[in-house]
Amino acid sequence: MPGKFTVPRQRTLGGALGVLVLGFGLTYHFFPRLFHVDPEQVAPHRTLLLPGGLSTSGGGAGEPAALPISSELNAGPPLTLAPTEVIANRLSRKNSQLPEQLSADTPAVRALLTRAGKAFNAGQLVGDPNSAASLYAQALKEKPDSRRATQGLFDVRARLVAEIDQDLAAGDADTAASHLEDLKTLPNAADDADELAGRLKTLQQVRPMLAKAAGLLQQGGNHPQQAEQALTLYRQVQQLDPQNAMAEQGVLQVQRSVLDQALAAVAQNDFAGADKALTAAAAIESGSQQMADVRNQVSGIRHQRASGLLAQARSALDAGNQPLAKQLAGQAQALSPDLQGLDDFEQRLTYARLYASYKPGQVFNDRFVDLPGQSPALVVIPTGTLQMGAPDSEENHSDAEQPQHTVTIAKGFAMSRTDITVGQFREFVRASGYQPDSLKLGGASVYDEGSGALRDDARASWQDDYAGHPANDKLPVVNISWNDARAYADWLSQRTGKRYRLPSEAEFEYALRGGTTTRYWWGDGTPQSKVENLTGSGDRSLSGRRWSNAFQGYRDGYWGPAPVMSFAANAFGLYDMGGNVSEWVADCWHDNYIRAPLDGSAWINPGCAVHVLRGGSWGSSPDQVRSAYRQGADGSVRSGRVGFRVVREL
Question: N or C: which end of the chain has fewer CB within 10 A?
């Protein structure tokens, strides 16, 4: 058993010996030449690389990976002239030939690899002892498992394949043949060489065809026949060699000549010729970029030209030249059917033709040309058709309202929105000096409250209301003869320079109905709201009189005419068409509609004395308010129930 001092001595001696051994090991590792050891001659330290840069070896865990092997594994193939997909394809087929077991390259091999890499980068691939292929082969001879050398030969082969690909694509058969001979000298190149040799043979076959096609284009590429011959040759080349770039470019060149013809046609405003050329170009190569560019260019020029024609059409329409405007708009539409603004112009042209550029429903006034003032407000009436008269089924109709017949209003007109008022007629009398028949012939028929009927009053005139009292300017003028009404219309024509007249009977019924076919313009029975000044059972005179034949349950609050526009307008925007006062129209009276005009014009017999009254009044029975109702009266009649309105031709 050791003594009490033996254990401490042994521990001290062991620790000192461990430190000495550790120091020797570190010195030998970092300064080997102190022990006359050459590190280059030391046996290579085999290392197996693991993911993440770790390795397993005879050394301790975590020992760094051997640098030469690591740099070999991280090295990739150099950039070549071949497309990426070509290199990737070659690598996928050849990588399996690389050796799996590797060892560190010797200094001599590394020197050869360095020289080979420089030759490769300089483009010195094959052909002499200093070429990359020769140097890589020499390195493999000295060290058959050198992965860098094997990879280098693969890169040389891939570079040569890529260069031959480019030579073939460019049509350079001589250079391709030279490179192909070089490729055949490399190991494992037989498959690539056979494939490229076949392509070279095809190129040599199509070269004369390409040369001939190019010559045709150079001599007269814009001549249709020569361009067609060149195109045929290029198509034949593409059948033999679908990937031939020169043939593809030749086809595009032929198409370019046809597209130039399209642009030349457009420059001459020959858009039909341009379309023909574009169709021919599309048959050559429909999806080319130049095809799309020229098509867009022609489309832009076409749109610009069409826009210019449409602007000229608008100017012609504004100047009143409708035929020229229509012709120019037609040319614009032929050039560009979807041109913005064509629909609006067509509507304007329709309005110009039918309504003198006004719109249906539009309200306007004509200003006087020779003195201050303006016409009554006018409403533009739309064109359309009318079933004029009463049908057989209508209750209480008369023979005078038949036969019912179709009338076509083919041209628009404007009608005064209301009856002519006392104030408007007063302006006419004051300005013209005209003497109305109520003054010239003396008197009118006015309402007598005592008897509840109309009576003649020699003192009554157009300036009085229905009862013979001075009238308000807003009331419809009454006590007017047919001649007075026509004289007012003639005066408006003189003052405005436009043609004014009394409406025809057909125009009046068409405007009164406002598109309806019912008994009244508002419906078939008593109105549910205050639509007109009518004879209602709820109306009372000043003395409390009631109507014996009236609309039951209706009350409008007036006994006698109401100021114009006191009630609702009909569908055409006209007021007081079915009530307030009956109105003179231009037609002579006829007992029925046999042989009546069908175009909406007035039915006039020269020298006739009896004219037509249309529309109900404040004192008409419900049957006399019907839209089909008509009656005749001597043109000299002046009554407190009769007024008029005018039409302005468009």
Answer: N
Distance CA 560, CA 640 (A): 9
Q: How far is CA 378 from CA 177, 417, 532, 615, in A?
A: 94, 5, 20, 19
Q: Which residues contact 462 (CB under 8 A, 6 or more apart)?
A: 422, 425, 429, 436, 438, 439, 444, 477, 478, 479, 480, 484, 638
Give the SS3 label for residue 535.
coil
Q: With both helix axes pointing from N to C terminus, report the angle between 271-284 and 245-267 in degrees, rounded to the nearest 10.
A: 170
The C-alpha angle with vertex 519 and arms to 515 and 522, in degrees rounded to 5, equals: 60
Q: For residue 296, what is the enclosing H or E element? A: helix 289-318
| Residue 381 host element (H or E) | strand 378-381
Pair 386, 489: CB distance under 8 Å: no
The total of other beta-carbon atoms located within 10 Å of residue 475's CB is 22
Right CATH number for 204-286 from 3.90.920, 3.40.50, 1.10.3470, 1.25.40?
1.25.40
Taking the CA atoms of the chain, what radius of gyration do you get in angstroms? 55
Domain edges within the chain = 77-97+104-188, 204-286, 302-355, 378-649
> For the whole model, what pTM was predicted?
0.60
Single-letter amino acid, residue 530: K
| CATH of segment(s) 378-649 | 3.90.1580.10
**CA nearest 78: which of 20, 159, 8?**
159
Question: What is the Cα–Cα distance from 48 to 50, expressed in whole angstroms?
Answer: 6
pLDDT tens, residue by residue, 589-644:
999 999 999 999 999 999 999 999 999 999 999 999 999 999 999 999 999 999 99
Strand partners for 384: 409
From CA 67, how far away is CA 55, in angstroms rounded?
11
CA 15 → CA 2, 3, 290, 413, 553, distances in Å?
A: 19, 20, 88, 129, 134
Q: Is 186 exposed, middle or buried (0-12, 13-18, 19+ CB in 10 A)?
A: buried
State pLDDT tens for residues 565-587: 999 999 999 999 999 999 999 99
204-286 and 378-649 in the same fold: no
Q: Is 610 helix (H, G, I), strand (E, B) or coil?
A: strand
375/500 Cα distance (integer angstroms):
10
Angle, in degrees to the nearest 10, between helices 289-318 and 245-267: 10
**What's the first-to-final CA gap in the chain, in angstroms?**
145
Of 212, 192, 203, 184, nearest to 127 (Cα)?
Answer: 184
* 7-59 tens-digit pLDDT: 455 555 555 555 554 555 555 555 555 444 454 444 443 333 333 333 333 34
Alpha helices (runs of H) in 336-421, residue ranges in sequence order: 342-355
Residues 95 and 606: their CA atoms lie apart, in Å, by: 113
Nearest alpha-carbon partner for 486 in 437, 555, 430? 437
Confirm if 160 and 168 have CB atoms less than 8 A apart. no
Report pLDDT digits (tens) over 324-374: 999 999 999 999 999 999 999 998 898 888 888 899 999 999 999 998 999
Q: Which amino acid is at 237?
A: V
Question: What's the gap between Cα 55 and its chain centre?
Answer: 68
Cα dihedral angle (17, 23, 29, 33), rounded to 10 degrees? -100
3-state secondary structure of 376: coil
